[in-house]
Design brief:
This protein has 424 residues and is an alpha/beta fold. It is built from 16 helices and 16 strands. It has helices at residues 77-84, 89-94, 99-108, 111-127, 143-160, 182-199, 217-229, 246-252, 266-275, 283-288, 297-302, 323-332, 338-344, 347-352, 379-382, 418-423; strands at 2-12, 21-30, 33-39, 48-53, 58-61, 63-65, 130-136, 163-171, 205-210, 235-238, 257-260, 278-281, 307-309, 369-372, 389-394, 397-400. Helix 12 (323-332) crosses helix 13. The longest helix is centred in the middle third of the chain and has 18 residues, at 143-160. The chain is globular and about 70 Å long. The chain binds 3-[(4S)-2,5-dioxoimidazolidin-4-yl]propanoic acid and fe (iii) ion. The site of fe (iii) ion has 5 residues, from loops.
Length: 424
């Protein structure tokens, strides 16, 4: 006997090129895994404890936000005003503002304060059908504060039941106490911070900011070597503001992803293709920094490098709290098709996080999916500022949100998972 079955649904399985649509479908779940899906007329007679008739709603894999800096203290609204008066992001960073101003506020905040600030950001994503995401450290830049951030990420994971990957981004900026001594700071990361945080079980992945205002490729490589010694996968903020060759380095270390990529050239694209590194594009940062250099979408397509899309949610370059909005921006700004954009927040985002059992609707995969009050999947990228998410299923547990439109009708036939609902 199955635990639950959703009937009268339309599925975008994301299993092939394109949406992988199955209309008039059903999807059944047992022990947190998808055990059957297909045309409802082909459904075997297998009774389920719970049957939910969803009256023609669409079901997609749960959305995955594969690049966020969701935990931080303070605000950068003032810096936004400065930029509007003509200061550039780099200038503000060089004068000790930017990332370092968030570092100051994050060091001052208690763990509870950081948790309380981060929770509504996460809830906003959950409410939009996000079931898995990545959260980076990197606003501590000392062992204690990096630990505090990663503990908050762990607590968010444990208390919400979301699938959360914790990324150590100690090499995000140079802390003021190491001014003019970047190599010493890298030594601190490699010999102290990363091993200590790894030992405490707080790190899933390692990232760095390889940039003219960040770290050089040589410094980044030292961090990658340490990650490799500890058997931790790597990823990289690469070629966002300039071409430093970080992507080729990331590819040499078989990085899960290289992210941003506006200044990436063809050699870098080829290196990614060879290493199977995912290209994570961040339209929120492109938009908010008013970047005009487009990431090399055509080259990525030509070389079959899978493209993922994420919010880059952070206080400085992308205060973007909506992954659905990023779908729209990926289409309008980067000219992705709605189906490529949806693949970018499902199957390709799962690859970028090394989550082989998520991002597609397939038998054997985790029962993580989102239900939508839409008539066709392209609507997810087409509308902006509107959230048609009806509910989510996470590891088989069903939560229904408040009705997404005034004339919506269907309530689940039996009680949805009260615990999952409460956690929202
Ligand atoms: N690139 C980004 O987009 C964020 N970090 C990074 O390395 C921005 C972080 C910030 O400005 O606070
Ligand atoms: Fe980032």
């Amino acid at each position: 006997m199955w635990d639950s079955i959703w009937t009268n649904a339309n599925l975008a399985t994301m299993t092939e090129d394109g949406y992988g649509i199955i209309e008039q479908a059903a999807i059944a779940v047992q022990n947190g895994k998808i055990v059957w899906l297909g045309k409802q007329s082909d459904c075997p007679e297998n009774p389920a404890k719970n049957t939910y008739d969803v009256a023609g709603k669409w079901i997609t894999p749960g959305l995955i936000d594969c690049h966020t800096h969701l935990i931080w203290g303070g605000s950068r609204a003032r810096e936004f005003e400065q930029r509007l008066q003509g200061a550039s992001y780099e200038e503000i960073a060089k004068e000790g503002g930017g990332i370092l101003s968030t570092v100051k506020a994050t060091r001052q905040a208690t763990e509870d304060e950081l948790y309380e600030a981060a929770r509504p950001r996460l809830q906003n994503l959950m409410r939009e059908g996000v079931t898995a995401l990545e959260i980076k450290s990197g606003y501590g830049l000392d062992t204690d504060t990096e630990e505090k951030m990663l503990r908050v990420a762990t607590r968010l994971r444990d208390e919400t039941g979301m699938s959360i990957q914790r990324t150590f981004l100690g090499a995000h900026a140079l802390p003021p106490d190491y001014k003019d001594k970047p190599d010493d700071y890298i030594t601190l990361i490699c010999e102290d911070m990363l091993p200590a945080l790894h030992k405490k079980g707080l790190v899933d992945t390692v990232d760095a900011f390889c940039e003219n205002i960040g770290f050089t490729t040589a410094q980044t490589e030292r961090v990658f070597q340490k990650a490799q010694d500890l058997n931790l996968p790597v990823k990289l903020h690469a070629e966002q503001l300039s071409n430093q060759g970080g992507t080729a380095l990331a590819a040499r270390y078989k990085a899960l992803s290289a992210d941003h990529l506006e200044y990436l050239d063809e050699d870098g694209v080829k290196a990614m293709a060879e290493s199977g590194t995912i290209a994570v594009l961040l339209p929120g940062a492109f938009y908010f920094l008013r970047e005009t250099k487009m990431p090399p979408i055509d080259l990525l397509r030509q070389h079959n490098v899978p493209i993922a899309i994420a919010t880059d949610l952070n206080p400085g370059s992308s205060p973007a709290h909506s992954l659905l909005l990023m779908l729209n921006m990926a289409c309008t700004l980067f000219r992705l098709t709605p189906e490529d954009a949806l693949a970018g927040v499902t199957k390709n985002a799962a690859k970028a996080l090394g989550l082989p059992d998520r991002g597609q609707l397939k038998e054997g995969m985790a029962a993580d999916f989102a239900l939508w009050d839409i008539k066709e999947p392209a609507e997810l990228a087409y509308r902006f500022g509107f959230n048609p998410c009806y509910g989510v299923v996470r590891d088989g547990a069903y939560s229904v949100f408040a009705q997404s439109s005034m004339d919506s009708h269907t309530e689940p036939s039996t009680g949805c998972n009260a615990e999952a609902r409460a956690s929202l």
